[in-house]
Amino acid sequence: MDQELIDHGREAIRLLNRVIEAGTELEHHDLNAASTCVIAFRNRAIELFPEGRASRACLDRANSLTSLSFGGEFPLSGLHLHRLEQTRDGMERLIEGPGDG
After folding, report:
1. Rounded to an integer, what distance in angstroms lies between the CA atom of residue 92 and that of residue 66?
2. Of 13, 34, 54, 64, which has the fewest CB atoms closer than 10 Å, so is most exposed?
3. Taking the model in full, what pTM does it have?
4. Cα separation of 7 and 38, whole Å?
5. Are 95 and 9 in contact (CB under 8 A)?
6. What is the C-alpha to C-alpha distance for residues 81 and 14, in angstroms, rounded to an integer?
7. Can you tell me the distance from the alpha carbon of 73 to that of 84, in angstroms, rounded to the nearest whole number?
């Protein structure tokens, strides 16, 4: 997997952990920063896919994780920490998993 892609993933995991630890006391800009990192990961996967440096599976999972991260905040009925935890766990599996990225 591309090192820049891995770096975006690790930063997203770090920021998602911060949001999860803050729980209901979190600042909106922290949640926004975490989602932005997930999006950066997805965008980098999109760039690498045509070059064959990111697999279809990686791209598909990156798209799913982007949607899941937004699901942590919306609908506006409150914060859905379990969705953010699922996003973090999925990102960990994606960047730490077997070399199919």
Report:
1. 14
2. 64
3. 0.84
4. 11
5. yes
6. 15
7. 9
